[in-house]
Amino acid sequence: MRATPIALILATSLIGLPAAADDPPPVSEATEMCLMCHESLHPGIVAGWRSSRHAAVTPAAAMAVEGLARKVSSDDIPENLAGVVVGCAECHTLRPDDHDGVFDHNDYQVHSVVSPGDCAVCHTVEAQQYEGNIMSHAHGNLEGNALYQDLERHILGAPAIDEGRLSFAAPDPATEAVGCLYCHGTRLDVTGTETRDTDFGEMDFPIIAGWPNQGVGRINLDGTRGSCSACHTRHTFSIEIARKPYTCKECHVGPDVPVYKVYSASKHGNIYHSKKQEWDFSAVPWTVGRDFTAPTCATCHVSLLVTPDGETVAERTHGMKGRIAWRIFGLVYSHAHPKDPDTTKIVNKDGMPLPTALDGTPASDFLIDAEEQKKRRATMEAVCLSCHGRSWVRGHFERYEKSHETTNAATRTATAILEEAWARGYAQGPADGGSPFDEAIEHRWADIWLFYANSIRFTAAMAGGGDYAVFADGHYTHAKRIKELQEWLEERTPPDP
Amino acid sequence: MRATPIALILATSLIGLPAAADDPPPVSEATEMCLMCHESLHPGIVAGWRSSRHAAVTPAAAMAVEGLARKVSSDDIPENLAGVVVGCAECHTLRPDDHDGVFDHNDYQVHSVVSPGDCAVCHTVEAQQYEGNIMSHAHGNLEGNALYQDLERHILGAPAIDEGRLSFAAPDPATEAVGCLYCHGTRLDVTGTETRDTDFGEMDFPIIAGWPNQGVGRINLDGTRGSCSACHTRHTFSIEIARKPYTCKECHVGPDVPVYKVYSASKHGNIYHSKKQEWDFSAVPWTVGRDFTAPTCATCHVSLLVTPDGETVAERTHGMKGRIAWRIFGLVYSHAHPKDPDTTKIVNKDGMPLPTALDGTPASDFLIDAEEQKKRRATMEAVCLSCHGRSWVRGHFERYEKSHETTNAATRTATAILEEAWARGYAQGPADGGSPFDEAIEHRWADIWLFYANSIRFTAAMAGGGDYAVFADGHYTHAKRIKELQEWLEERTPPDP
Amino acid sequence: MRATPIALILATSLIGLPAAADDPPPVSEATEMCLMCHESLHPGIVAGWRSSRHAAVTPAAAMAVEGLARKVSSDDIPENLAGVVVGCAECHTLRPDDHDGVFDHNDYQVHSVVSPGDCAVCHTVEAQQYEGNIMSHAHGNLEGNALYQDLERHILGAPAIDEGRLSFAAPDPATEAVGCLYCHGTRLDVTGTETRDTDFGEMDFPIIAGWPNQGVGRINLDGTRGSCSACHTRHTFSIEIARKPYTCKECHVGPDVPVYKVYSASKHGNIYHSKKQEWDFSAVPWTVGRDFTAPTCATCHVSLLVTPDGETVAERTHGMKGRIAWRIFGLVYSHAHPKDPDTTKIVNKDGMPLPTALDGTPASDFLIDAEEQKKRRATMEAVCLSCHGRSWVRGHFERYEKSHETTNAATRTATAILEEAWARGYAQGPADGGSPFDEAIEHRWADIWLFYANSIRFTAAMAGGGDYAVFADGHYTHAKRIKELQEWLEERTPPDP
Question: Measured between CB atoms, does C144 come within 8 Å of chain A?
Answer without folding.
Answer: no
